[in-house]
Write a structure and sequence with these properties.
By secondary structure, this protein is an all-alpha fold. The protein has nine helices and no strands. It has two domains: about 110 residues, no CATH class; about 140 residues, no CATH class. The mean pLDDT is about 90. Bound molecules: zinc ion.
């Protein structure tokens, strides 16, 4: 009986520790999501990235700590600035929630290692590029260069840096030739310079099967969106990001 009690108590303790761990993973993800929102908004508004305190984009009032809680603050403030009542973009809590789940999934599968932290940094930096691409059809070097550094570090850790570098170069050249061909045919630029850097990064990180999956998923999603939204061109980085996340889950 005593043994049963001890086992039960240990199981309960284990369950509590596991729940707590999952909650902390989720919370970390939402904080990263909040950071992504702040960085992409500062890039688009051409504000300094080094400012420590967050401020309202409209009235420039400093935001108090309790208005900076991911998801919760948005709900409590009913999606408006406390001072000037300007609407906070609706994608803010979505990104925070999404990153909560991404961190929960990644850390519970791979635990907290240098590799998993680099992976989440890569997804976070890629998300900043995706958001700016959606908002203003622009990718900023300040978000692109750190993305490349993280991709290089991940590639070095994988131990296949030479192979991955050659693959990344071949992929970038192939995409460049294809984009130039399509561009000449349609008589317009089909890819921006930043898109090639992102192709280089994914060439560093994935196997060739993974790259085929990424291109397949991105193209399919792109075609589906193009059927519903009659826009002349679609932002390419978010499509690639969906492809990357899909290929990662697929593997
Ligand atoms: Zn305001």
């Amino acid at each position: 009986m005593k043994i049963c009690k001890t086992v039960f108590a240990n199981l309960k303790k284990y369950r509590y520790n596991a729940d707590m761990r999952f909650f902390l993973y989720f919370l970390t993800g939402t904080i990263i999501g909040s950071f992504i929102n702040m960085m992409s908004s500062r890039l688009v508004l051409e504000k300094s990235l080094l400012k420590t305190r967050s401020e309202c984009d409209k009235c420039n009032k400093k935001i108090i700590w309790y208005d900076l809680m991911p998801i919760l603050s948005y709900l409590l403030l009913q999606g408006k600035c406390r001072y000037c009542k300007t609407k906070i973009p609706a994608y803010y809590p979505v990104v925070e929630l999404l990153f909560g789940f991404i961190a929960l999934w990644l850390f519970s599968h791979e635990s907290i290692t240098i590799q998993s932290m680099l992976k989440i940094s890569f997804v976070a930096l890629l998300s900043i590029n995706s958001i700016t691409d959606i908002l203003v059809t622009n990718i900023y070097n300040k978000a692109l260069y750190p993305l490349m550094v993280v991709a290089l570090l991940l590639s070095i850790i994988s131990g296949n840096i030479v192979y991955q570098l050659i693959q990344a170069l071949i992929l970038t050249v192939l995409i460049w030739v294809m984009a130039k061909g399509i561009g000449a045919f349609k008589q317009e630029k089909s890819l921006g310079e930043g898109d090639y850097y992102i192709f280089f990064c994914i060439g560093l990180l994935f196997s060739y099967e993974g790259l085929i999956r990424i291109i397949m998923i991105s193209s399919l999603i792109g075609i589906m969106i193009a059927l519903f939204i009659k826009r002349k061109s679609l932002p390419f980085v978010p499509l690639l990001q969906i492809g990357i996340m899909g290929a990662y889950l697929w593997s």
